[in-house]
Amino acid sequence: MKKINMPQYAQKVLEGAVVGCLRQKYRESAHNRIELGAQCKQEITKAIVEAEFDPQLDLPLYHACQETIRRHCSSTIIQKSGGFDTVLECLKADFYKGAISDKDCSKELARRVEETMVDIHLDPSLHEACSIDVQRLCPDVVPGHSRGCADESGNAD
C-alpha cells in the first residue's frame, strides 16, 4: 500500500499503465485470440479511434512524437487547416516512407499501426478509402481480429 502514495504511482500514471496494458492485450488479441469483454473492447476501440483524430489523446505517442510533429508535419497541418487527423496521417505517411528518425516516435507509430490492423474500422482514413472495396470484394468477412480481404485469399497474417 505504501507504493500507491508515491508520486511515481499517482492515479494518472496508473490509469495510463492500465490503458496501455489493455491496448497491448487488444493488439495481441488478433494473434492469440485473447477475448476482452465486450464493454472493455468497445472502450479501447473508442480510445483508439478518438486518438486518430487527436494525437494528444494517445499520450505515449504524443510525447514521443512532439518534436517529429513540429519537424515533419507543421506545413501539412497548415495546408489542411490544422485538423488533428492531419497530424497522425502525416506521421503515418512519413513512418511508411521510413522518414521518422526518432526511435521512440517510430515505436509508438508502429504500435498505432498494429492497433489499427486488428480492425479496419479503427483507421478512419483506411476505412473510408476501402469501404466500398471491402463491401464489394469481401462481403462475407466479418471485420475484427485482423480479418479482411486477405483472409479470403488465404494471405492473412
Automatic annotation (TrEMBL):
Keywords: Glycoprotein, Membrane, Repeat, Signal, Transmembrane, Transmembrane helix. GO terms for molecular function: fibroblast growth factor binding. It comes from the Eukaryota. It is found in: Membrane. It is a single-pass type I membrane protein. PROSITE patterns: GLG1_C_RICH. InterPro entries: Cys-rich_GLG1_repeat (IPR001893), Cys-rich_GLG1_repeat_euk (IPR017873), GLG1 (IPR039728). This is Cysteine rich repeat-containing domain protein. It comes from Ancylostoma duodenale.
